[in-house]
Design a protein that fits this description.
This protein has 2 helices and 15 strands. It has 206 residues and is mainly β. The structure holds manganese (II) ion (MN).
Amino acid sequence: MVPALPTKLTVATDGTLTGATRHYDKRLGDLGGVYRDDNAWRQAVAERGADTIAYSVDDQRYAEDRTGATPSGALIVGTSMLQPGLFGQEYAMTRGHLHAIADRAELYHCLSGHGVMLLETVEGHSEAVELTAGEAVNIPGHWIHRSVNVGSEPFVTLFCYAADAGQDYGIIAEAGGMRSLIVRNGNDWTTTSNPDHVGYRRAEEQ
Ligand code: MN
């Protein structure tokens, strides 16, 4: 067997990833239902435009030469660039997900900016891990995860996860949002409980 070839990547602090094979933009207009204050989100869309980029992702994936399939055990490496902002009292954030294969872990390493990784389990654990440049969080499997930008510059991270992990975005939407909200508290951020959260479905109900 001839394994896939190694890939050299160049990672800039602004998230530019030389060697990326894919890029996507998530726009303000795509984030309906993500923020608790729906009016604040609608107002932001009206003022800034539905096409305004909320966050972007570059990633790099490799395939086997002969089959074009992703090799078992492969990693996906990428960068995420989350723009700053406030929607009501909530800071700008990504949609968030649980891996479809829930035991798959993920590393996030902050390249620039100031953010929080909001992490929750179906069973009721919550963690908010603050990250600035040079800090990383090694997230085990089974944690629902979302990036939150609590700063005034883009929150830029390098991430790495198993290529077969997949993403389950519905788990947060069906629960009325994550259990915790990351909100403004003066000039700082804090965690509050989300009154709309109705609990996560159990893995066996998926
Ligand atoms: Mn993930």
